[in-house]
Amino acid sequence: MADLRIFSYLPNPRVWKATIAARFCGVDVEVRGASGKELRDWLWDYDAHPLTEHERAALSSLARTGRVGLTGAQLFKTDAFMEAQPFGNVPAAFGADGKVGIFESNSIMRAVARLGEAKFALYGRDAYEASRIDSFLDVSLVFARDTQIYLLALSGGTVDAAIHARAKDAFAIYASGIEQALSPLRETLVGTGISIADICLTAELALFMNEHGRAEQLRKLGLERILHPGVQDQYPLMFAHFARLLEHAHFAPELKPYVEKLRSKAAA
């Protein structure tokens, strides 16, 4: 039985925060899921799985209307799922007994780091380092909120200048802080080794790169990509750190091919 089970739409860099941490810490993490569209046909539960036609009919009373990302869709969420995941969103993680729910990707990643702290101190070596790591994770939530709105608007064809401006400002604030944190030529954000702060940065930046495939859509609106070709010159330390981490053995399995695919869209 896995130490932690995660149910989510896939591929999802925010889920990979936990799987990257798990490789450092030796924690057994199981991931279940499918594309966002396919999750409409899944049972949302600790024992998440594709619904059979019989189950769909028998469990019709569980249908709930989706919100963020799956707005308006009929989703089959068990009462146990809603008890463990009160906001009803994915990624949704569960403890080994399937009863304890953990939600929000940073908290799921923290759980992995805590479970494996004896093997690798991903969450810092003392209370001060852990709190500084928390500071980076908390700031990332603000960035993630605005970028999620932006990316969903891009995929839904509803992006406008105001949404673009908020995401651009959020990126500039976040990237400037990361650049400053790395400015003494540090190799990691906190302490002397990789922490969950570095994992979070890499996953969030990889997710934001989904903008690469929307250049023409933005051009028609008279807008430029936030991750335009010159952006690496503005934040050289952050992007160099990102590049180093993508090559790391614990980051590369999911993130490297994901980023390479998105970069190929930018080149096209």
From TrEMBL:
Gene3D superfamilies: 1.20.1050.10, Glutaredoxin. This is Glutathione S-transferase. Residues 126-268 form the GST C-terminal domain. InterPro entries: EF-GSTs, Glutathione-S-Trfase_C-like, Glutathione-S-Trfase_C_sf. It comes from Bradyrhizobium septentrionale.
